[in-house]
TrEMBL record:
It comes from Nannocystis punicea. Residues 1-16 form the signal peptide. Keywords: Signal. It comes from the Bacteria. Residues 56-98 are annotated as: Disordered. Residues 56-76 have a biased composition (Low complexity). This is Repeat domain-containing protein. The keyword Signal applies.
Length: 606
């Protein structure tokens, strides 16, 4: 792939999928899915993100206190803040602490631990098994307040946990009434299901409805498909396969449809209820918690416009990366999809596997009008073979249908890539134009498909070989495209944009840009951090707003996908670590905080 003025040109030879779907768990942009509890339905945590963040959602950092306050943060083990965390009566004053942990009567039981100024309850049993997941419980924080559904004046609590029987740890979702000290509703994933996506959707009255949905791989589970999601509807009879208080919505599509990790929330039909966008390979499948029925199902091919001569679905329709549900300035409803890895993820040489930009669009309240408005395909990580016939084992190149792009066309995204230039809604991404691969590892990849296929030993050999391409040379640059049309608007080379904010120079959106040599290694391991340049983007051109006084790259937070900002894979939204104050500042990797002094119009160490 080579880029000319922000328009990717992709050379494609062919046809089949070069990765089995199960292999993508190793892509290196995964992260810890256990998060700090919050009174909202989203949360953040800070980490310096330089290589990979490992998936580890086995436990929820339990507390051992039996008193009215927790001794640890329920998900990180850190000391809690002195103030209460949750506002049960919605009067603006936090009055309750909540956490997940073992029950006082037995370490084998899981309880919601309570310390409250409003109720005398100390704990509520959630289930007879330890809270330990053997897969991933992805999405909303483990504990959320969902509003007063039963009219007792206090919010119900949604508590997400797992039920570990010594072998399996399937996810579960319980709704707890604290005044009654009881679980009023619950939904359990089937025992064979390791992975679930859960979030809280909003109804017209502002109440939240938690749900538990199948996640990665449902539809290809050899032990049986889950095939439904369970959404909290206490006003309806229990749904088939869901527990009391929960209604069922089918998620079982045609055979072979592959379920991605997460989804987004978006009122697609205009009824005031947020609908659930379930992400699959090559489709968005949208269902309604109001009607318990299908709202829209759209199949789309993000590579067709860029590679019209390529056989369809050579990329399997992978829908990884970020999915942002937004309403554009023109009133159109959009899903903005960025098939890339978070900025700074230089440990992920597979770079989302499938690299693309795409926008789905529909008219307000008219889900049937949803369409793929535009897409631009950049590249695909691995080689694709025609037949995988053992006769080619000695010369895999003879069977190549499409040669690997490796790190060529790799996209790095800040947050969801959405920003504004000259009053226009745009997408800005970093991309890499590779000079040549270090090693395409054809022998190692071809061997994966020869019996016995995809053994750990073969996979380790191939991934280890392919990772050499982190050291491929080339050029990092950025490009800006019109969110509405996908048209390329501007770009720059020898630059890497680490992020942007309108808080650092109040009233102006500025970008933190690292200027790079003409040629670098993909992972920038040959480039010492320099002083970041602060730039505005006006008229399609960088406009200098000064230089940081010290060298260093920013410390990035990884925000959990939830609500309207979702993801198709185990990834996150990378964001700058900002510090409020006068003046506000941004933190670098070494802990230095840089701020703008408006009196001197200079950047200073705060």
């Amino acid at each position: 792939m080579r880029l000319a003025f922000a328009v990717p040109l992709v050379f494609v030879l062919a046809c089949a999928d070069g990765f089995p779907d199960t292999a993508t768990l190793d892509i290196g942009t995964s992260f810890d899915t256990s998060t700090s509890t919050s009174t909202s339905t989203s949360t953040t945590w800070s980490t310096t993100f330089d290589t990979t963040i490992s998936v580890d959602s086995l436990t929820d950092g339990t507390t051992t206190s039996t008193t009215g306050t927790t001794t640890e943060d329920p998900t990180t083990g850190a000391p809690p803040s002195p103030a209460r965390q949750y506002d049960l009566d919605d009067d603006g004053q936090p009055d309750t602490d909540l956490s997940l942990g073992t029950c006082t009567q037995s370490a084998d039981l899981t309880c919601l631990r309570v310390g409250s100024d409003l109720v005398p309850v100390l704990e509520v049993s959630l289930g007879p098994l330890p809270d330990q997941c053997d897969g991933n419980l992805f999405g909303a924080p483990r504990i959320t307040l969902i509003g007063d559904h039963d009219g007792d004046g206090l919010s119900e609590v949604a508590a997400r946990h797992c039920r570990f029987d010594g072998v399996q740890g399937p996810p579960a979702l319980a709704v707890v009434s604290l005044p009654a000290a009881a679980v009023s509703a619950r939904a359990d994933a089937p025992a064979v299901q390791d992975n679930a996506w859960s979030d809280d959707l909003r109804d017209p009255q502002g109440l939240l409805h938690p749900f538990l949905a199948p996640s990665y791989g449902d539809g290809e589970n050899p032990l049986g498909d889950w095939g439904r999601l369970c959404v909290y509807r206490p006003d309806l009879p229990p749904g088939d396969g869901c527990g009391p208080g929960f209604s069922a919505i089918s998620t079982l599509l045609a055979p072979g449809e592959f379920r991605e990790v997460g989804g987004t929330l978006q009122d697609l039909d205009g009824d005031g209820w947020e609908d659930i966008n379930l992400i699959y390979h090559r489709r968005q499948h949208t269902v309604s918690a109001a009607t318990l029925a299908l709202v829209n199902d759209l199949e789309y091919d993000v590579a067709a416009a860029s590679e019209p001569q390529s056989p369809k679905w050579f990329h399997s329709g992978r829908n990884y990366g970020t999915h942002a549900a937004v309403v554009g300035g023109d009133g159109q409803q959009r899903l903005v999809v960025v098939g890339g890895a978070p900025v700074g993820s230089f440990g992920d040489d597979l770079c989302n596997v499938s690299r693309f930009l795409a926008v789905l669009e529909s008219s307000p309240g008219q889900p049937a009008t949803r369409k793929l408005a535009w897409s631009t395909y950049f590249s695909f990580s691995s080689s694709i073979f025609k037949t995988y016939d053992p006769v080619h084992a000695g010369d895999p190149m003879a069977d190549v249908a499409r040669l690997a792009d490796a790190v060529d066309g790799c996209i790095h995204r800040y947050a969801d890539s959405r920003t504004v230039m000259d009053g226009q809604e745009v997408l800005l991404v970093n991309y890499f134009a590779m000079d040549a691969p270090v090693d395409l590892c054809l022998d190692e990849q071809f061997a994966l498909y020869q019996p016995p296929t995809w053994t750990d030993e073969k996979a380790d050999a191939w991934y280890g070989c392919f990772a050499k391409n982190k050291q491929a040379s080339g050029k990092w640059g950025m490009q800006v495209v019109d969110e509405r049309t996908g048209q390329g608007l501007t770009g720059s080379q020898q630059t890497y944009v680490w992020g942007w904010s309108d808080q650092l120079r109040p009233g102006e959106l500025v970008y933190l840009v690292e200027y790079l040599p003409p040629t670098t290694l993909w992972d920038l391991s040959d480039v010492a951090p320099s002083a970041l340049q602060v730039q505005a983007l006006e008229g399609g051109l960088w406009q200098s707003r000064g230089t940081f006084p010290v060298a260093g790259r920013p410390k990035l937070q990884q925000r959990v996908p939830t609500g309207a900002q979702g993801v198709g894979s185990y990834t996150s939204f990378a964001e700058l670590t900002l510090h409020p104050g006068d003046p506000p500042g941004v933190e670098l990797e070494d802990g230095t905080v840089i701020a703008h002094d408006p009196v001197r119009d200079a950047w200073i160490v705060r």
